[in-house]
Design a protein that fits this description.
Chain lengths: ~300, ~260
Amino acid sequence: MADLSLELCGVKLKNPIIAASGTFGFGREFDELYDIGQIGGISVKGLSLKPRTGNPPSRIAETPSGMLNSVGLQNPGVRSFIDNDLPWLLTKDVAVIANITGTTMDEYCQMAQVLAPTGVHMLEMNISCPNVHEGGVAFGVKPESVYAITKAVKAESRQPLIVKLTPNVADITENALAAQEAGADAISMINTLTGIAVDVNKRRMILHNNTGGLSGPAVRPVALHMVWQSAKKVSIPIIGMGGIETGEDAAAFMLCGAQAVMVGTANFTDPFACPRIVKELDAYCEKQGVKNAQELVGTLQEY
Amino acid sequence: MMRDMDARVLACEPLAEGLTRLILYAPEIASSAKPGQFVQMLVPDNAHVLRRPISLMAYDPQAGTMTLAIQPKGRGTELICSLKAGQTVRVLGPLGTGFDAGEAKKVYFAGGGVGVAPICCAMDAFANEHARAFFGFRSAAYAYGMTQAPCAVTAVSDDGTLGEKALVTKPLLAAIHAKKPDLIMACGPAPMLAAVQKIALELDIPCQLSLEERMGCGIGACLGCNVKIVAPDGSWCYKRVCKDGPVFDAKEVAMHG
């Protein structure tokens, strides 16, 4: 057994496997299948200040080795989460990351304030959702706006602040740097890549929102590249994600410089993906003679 | 209790035109299944990230088996339909709510196309001597589910090669006018469900509709399969087909978005 534990921005995780926001709800459904305390953390379904109804169906389309989604951040609102879901989640031995989204900078700041006195362990600021027409990604594209919103929300945050970055930009490392300079405690990357799916028989878009976010193994090489690039530029921790399906995929992100990883789409392919990946990462470490999984971080040999 | 398991394929054979019958040995799932529920099937390759939601056509807790009717629509369902007896396939289930006859004594069943499959399952559980079933198919070649039906079945087709050339709502409506049922259970293409819903609401007949939508997780976490649901006060929200459905009360479903 390798030691998979780590301290991420001062928060102890028993392993670096975190369920990615939007694929895991608030954990209740997966807890019917296995004890969610087996995984390091859960980034909950994206929360907004007020409840959001989300986008009309169809919201999902499968694509080669991946999928598009345009759920549109349907959620019951941050206060409902705090009252109805957080108390239950905190009884589980798992780090709880509140993923927050807003349409104005003020909304993000208010959410950080509302979450400040709660038992949430970390905040993940989503400034990269491609599926809502206002806000969200509007803050996440230009380094100046990444800096401004990170600075403002950090000032209101009591928990460590993770900034989730979009890959739909010219140079993601500039945004990673902007987040770091503004005081982010960590960055998570990558959110989904914008795409569309076409029903050629009906000659129309499959997704009602027209566009959606691409995830799954199809994006993994892009995600690995962006993590690798960003890890060279920033000193704050990186949480890597993008098509992780196995323990070896998780290890690849860690070799590229990620301290922890998030698992999203794989939860749909295999509802036991997260605990399986924990075991597979352990086996990989054993095979590599690595005693502590954190020894892997950033040790990729390059040409 | 839902289970994710490797189910052994007992048979994989043509059921009708464009439809494959898959019989699986999955005792843990069959023992807790209800009519109207579905399973999430992993495509037997390593390339498809989403499972395919397939309704139960029949299940037998004693034998530990379940029967599925699958329409090969794309590469994923084609691969599932090309499974051979003796192979295994990963299946998560049983999932979702089911049909519920409650106190209803006289149930009318309405099924269209591949939607006849879950109706067969509901008929096995709820059909009695008062029950009537109405099936609609594209043509005679597409028909199935009638030979061992536990109640009288009236079938119609789009081209008149089976029964009357009509939509399934025609014989359903005639039967309702002859004798009003306590409950209607329906599954089929969206236009058919909308028509059944209209009849049920206008004639004030309780009605349960089984919906279909593209799905992600299948267990209620991802909100990928949500449909619009209307509350009695006229307000609406999105509910999950996989967890809150797939069977919904016709009064609350907004069939036209």
